[in-house]
Amino acid sequence: MNLLTTEPKNQLKLNHMERKISHSIILTSLFIVLISFVQCSPKLYNTGKEFAASGNYEDAIAQFTKLIEENPEYTDAYVARAEVYEKIGKKTEAASDYKRATTFESKDKSIFYNAGRLYYELEQYDEAISMLSKVTTLDTKHVNAYRLKMESYIALEQYDKALKESNELLKLQETANNYYRRGFINEQLANYNQAETDFKKSIEKAPGFIDGYVALADVLFKAKKLDESLANCNKALQIDDKSKQALWIRSKIYKEKVDYPNAINDLSKMIIFSPDDEEAFFTRGLYYQEFNQHQSAINDFSKVISLDSDNALAYFHRAKSNEEITQYQKAVNDYKKYRELSDDNSEEAKERLETVKNRLYELNREGNKPVITFLEPAESEGQKINVIEDAAEVTLKGVIADESDLKYAKIEDQDVTFDKESANNEFSVTVNVKDKDAISVTVADVYNNVLATTYKLNRTEINPPVISLIAPYASSTGEIYLDVDNRKLYVEGQVNDESKIKSIIVDEMTASYSVDAENPEFFATIDIANKNRFVIKAEDIYGNITEQEYTLNREALEISQENPMGKTWVVFIENSDYETFASLDGPVKDVSMMKAALANYKIHNIIHKQNMAKAEMERFFSIELRDLVRSNNVNSLLVWYAGHGKFINDVGYWVPTDATRDDEFTYFNINALKASLQSYSKVVTHTLVITDACESGPTFYQAMRSGLKERDCGDWEATKFKSSQVFSSAGYELAVDHSQFTRTFANTLRNNPNACLPIENVVSKVTVAVAKDGMQKPQFGKIDGLADEGGTFFFIAKDR
User: Fold this and answer.
1) CB under 8 A, 24+ apart: contacts of 438-442
2) Counting beta carbons within 10 angstroms of the beta carbon of residue 35, is it exposed (0 to 12), middle (13 to 18) or buried (19 or more)?
3) What is the torsional sign of CA 571, 576, 580, 582?
4) Which of 308, 335, 385, 629 has the most crowded CB, counting CB atoms within 10 A?
């Protein structure tokens, strides 16, 4: 044997055997897997069926679901799971499983039917029709499939298709109900003759079928066969005398026969059985209305409204009956309510709205003219309107009262527009009043009641009121120094104006004042807690307004504490700008110097008057300062005069800015000052008058009989006992611009190291300085005629 040729052949045989063995192993493995899967699937299915049979539905669903996951084409698993889903009320899931099963079992009509049935119950009618059509294709005699398909088309209001299914159903099963349903379909398609035939067939099949009689009566009524319709209603009521449908149709028949009593009687029977039947009450109300029993109609419409307060038609018809019994206001209210509620855009509804509009127009008709009232500016008696004297135009605000809607309004031929949000026709219009003494007004309502009149223009002054505060005192800049820590502040003042005052408001509160008084005084107590300012507003009767703001300064609270001199005020009279005398720069500098020096002392308030005429000086000291001192409870008062002075016939004068040279009568006699000071004496404990102009004269003061004695502010008698003192320069000439008197006075105050400084110490310093300057010795003493108990004036230093 040739080994070279034999060996390759053997190798080929060996390879072939190996391939056969390999294929055999693969096929065996697949077979084993297939057998294993087939064995596994029935196990899950059977376990699921056992769980379902025992009522353990959730576990059953779990078994079927697992089986479907392992074998998505296992049809019985879908069907079984659908059955369980339906048992636990999950119809959507059940229908979905039946539908999925149909993809694998396209010839099983039961699966299609169950899917269609469930979709019908779920009101998914298109899906139901799709499934049920498969059933009738597979089984042309499947009665239930035709019936459900017909009902689905009825639900979709596709009556022509429903009729085809109904015909097929009747071929298979001629029952009373099937004829009844086809009659219903034909009635919907307006095939009344065929519907009549079908309903009669239904009655033939089941003579006691009440729905057949009712339906036949209804279709006969629509066909205007009233007597036949009535007969069938009576037959239905013989079967069931409480049949609402039969009574309803019979009431309509009686109404068509104009037999309102019987029509109303049938509806009343319905209401006995259904006491909250809104439609029955509404229809009976219509019948009562047509039968001219309007009160009964109103009662029924009211009942409807009690059941449904938004029933617009009930208001409409109740309005008509109210109008018939002359209850016009009630009719108006009901028509308005209908107009408010109606949102129907049908032609019939539009006609009703037009009727409402016309009825309201007639019911509201009246013959009264509109009434116009001007509020700003307010009209006065005799149809007068106050207008500022030089005004070229004026804005008029007011209201127009009328029982009806307004058609138009014109003022000076200018159209007036109304505020649509207002309930009483508020208006605002600007009219030209240049060179006019009257304006014309014309107003008409929708019934053409016309007001045509004129208003006289009363030209008034244009000056705003002037506010003067008496208590508490306010500086020229409107600053008020508070010396008492109190949340309430008493405010007193006066308002001066050419006209009477309409209102005075203090910090948003109406002040007390005499409305009829000219230049009235006013009073108010306001709350100033946590406030640093307040406003006083005054308005005169012509609308001229002044607003004045006042700032509250609480620094004086600290000053008031431990001040033995009490509330201390300083008054500066600074006359420098003269008409006939030489003008001065000195008084301005002197007052400024003294204010700076006094800044270190406990002074509650400083009043600074400049360039005062004689009349102003007399009024200030005799009235204004008196009232301020009294109202503000001032305890210590210093009056400082800086300006020209005169000493004539042993009498001292202060020279007002309007004084005439060599005319003694035009000077201010300081004895007049003394007279004014006497009126303060009951309030003021310490009075000090300082004049750097001239001697005050022997009639004004008493010279000190002994030398100046040392005074101590710790001496309670010195601070509590009255003092009335004057310190004046001794010259007889007019003032100069550089006053040694004032300069030394101010330096003494500035350089004082002590807690208090008595006036006597200041007098000593000033006297020495003036003497060194070669001038006559200043005069210091008591004011003649004013009470003096030995006290003195102290300057109390602020805490350093």
Assistant:
1) 439/385, 439/411, 439/412, 440/410, 440/411, 440/412, 440/413, 441/372, 441/409, 441/410, 441/411, 442/408, 442/409, 442/410
2) exposed
3) positive
4) 335
Give start and end residues of each alpha helix (H) in 478-582.
Answer: 555-560
Each residue's pLDDT tens digit, 558-593: 555 567 888 899 999 999 999 998 888 888 888 999
> What is the Cα–Cα distance from 377 to 388, expressed in whole angstroms?
10
What tokens appear for 519 in the block?
């230049």
CA distances from 658 to 497, 566, 577, 579 (A): 26, 36, 9, 6
Both tokens assigned to 426: 């508020």
In the chain, the amino acid numbered 709 is K
Three-state SS letters, 634-699? CCEEEEEEECCEEEECCEEEECCCCCCCCCHHHCEEHHHHHHHHHCCCCCCCEEEEEECCCCCCCC
In this structure, what token pair is assigned to residue 29?
């493995």
User: From residue 363, how far is each of 305, 354, 618 by CA, in Å?
Assistant: 23, 14, 75
Q: How many CB atoms lie within 10 A of CB 81?
A: 27
Cβ within 8 Å of residue 470, ≥6 positions away = 492, 493, 494, 521, 627, 628, 631
With H, G, I as helix, E, B as strand and everything else as coil, classify residue 133.
helix
**Burial tier of 618 (Cβ tally within 10 Å: 0-12, 13-18, 19+):** middle
- Tokens 């376990």, residue? 47
Determine the pLDDT at residue 740: 83
**d(Cα 317, Cα 320) in Å, to the nearest integer?**
5
Q: pTM to 2 decimals?
A: 0.46
Dump pLDDT digits (tens) for 171-200. 999 999 999 999 999 999 999 999 999 999
Give me the residue label for tokens 């005075």: 504
Q: What pLDDT does residue 529 have? A: 83
Distances (CA, A) of 254 to 9, 233, 249, 789: 115, 11, 9, 118
Residue 400's DSSP bridge partners are 372
Listed in sequence order, the residues at least 6 apart from 571 whose beta carbon sits closer than 8 Å to its beta carbon are: 606, 607, 609, 625, 637, 638, 639, 640
* β partners of residue 4: none
For β-strands 701-703 and 645-648, DSSP reports them as unpaired
